[in-house]
Design brief:
- The chain has eight helices and two strands, in the order βαααβααααα.
- With 174 residues, the protein is mainly alpha-helical.
- α2 packs across α3 and α6 packs antiparallel against α7.
- It is elongated, with a radius of gyration of 19 Å.
- The model has no long low-confidence stretch (mean pLDDT 95).
């Protein structure tokens, strides 16, 4: 499921912009040649997963990490929302996340999961698929809101996750 390499020019450009890095510094930080960074940045070469892992360990850039995870997982994780219908500002993303969470809550209240999966009709499965769509929309909106809040307020998502893990363990969630 995890790809060995991906074209990551957008992710690298995001990282360089967010971190204020030139190609030489990025190459030094990742222990690769500046030529390789240039080739990846311009879409001439793919980014190998070992270099991506090193970059995700070295830098704490949520948007960069989201872009890489999305590409390496073949779209299993949330993409960075950059379409023309999305205002990439914390207030707009907050409103968008709220709307998506409300939609997900609404459909969760409407659809019943009481029947065992093997006993559901095709029509019921379609409604369950709609639930999944709404949950994916909410998850993507939430992940993008987390990324922008982390960036705007200089709060490390990595650190927040690390600090939150004991709570999740205490609750028996993980």
């Amino acid at each position: 499921m995890i790809k060995e390499s991906v074209y990551a020019q957008t992710a690298l450009q995001t990282l360089q912009k967010e971190e204020g890095l030139d190609g030489v510094q990025l190459a030094m930080d990742l222990n690769v040649s500046p030529q390789l960074i240039s080739n990846i940045k311009h879409g001439h070469r793919k980014l190998q997963k070992d270099i991506a892992k090193s970059a995700m360990t070295t830098y704490d850039s949520p948007e960069f990490i989201m872009q890489l995870l999305y590409e390496f997982s073949e779209g299993y994780t949330s993409p960075v929302l950059k379409g023309r219908a999305i205002e990439h500002h914390r207030l707009a993303l907050e409103e968008f996340a709220n709307e998506q969470m409300e939609e997900a809550q609404r459909i969760l209240k409407e659809v019943s999961f009481i029947k065992p999966p093997g006993e559901t009709t095709e029509q019921e499965k379609e409604r369950i698929k709609e639930v999944i769509y709404e949950l994916l929309d909410a998850k993507t909106a939430i992940n993008n809101l987390i990324a922008i809040l982390s960036k705007d307020y200089n709060i490390s998502v990595k650190r927040c996750i690390k600090e939150r893990k004991p709570y999740w363990k205490a609750k028996g969630w993980i």
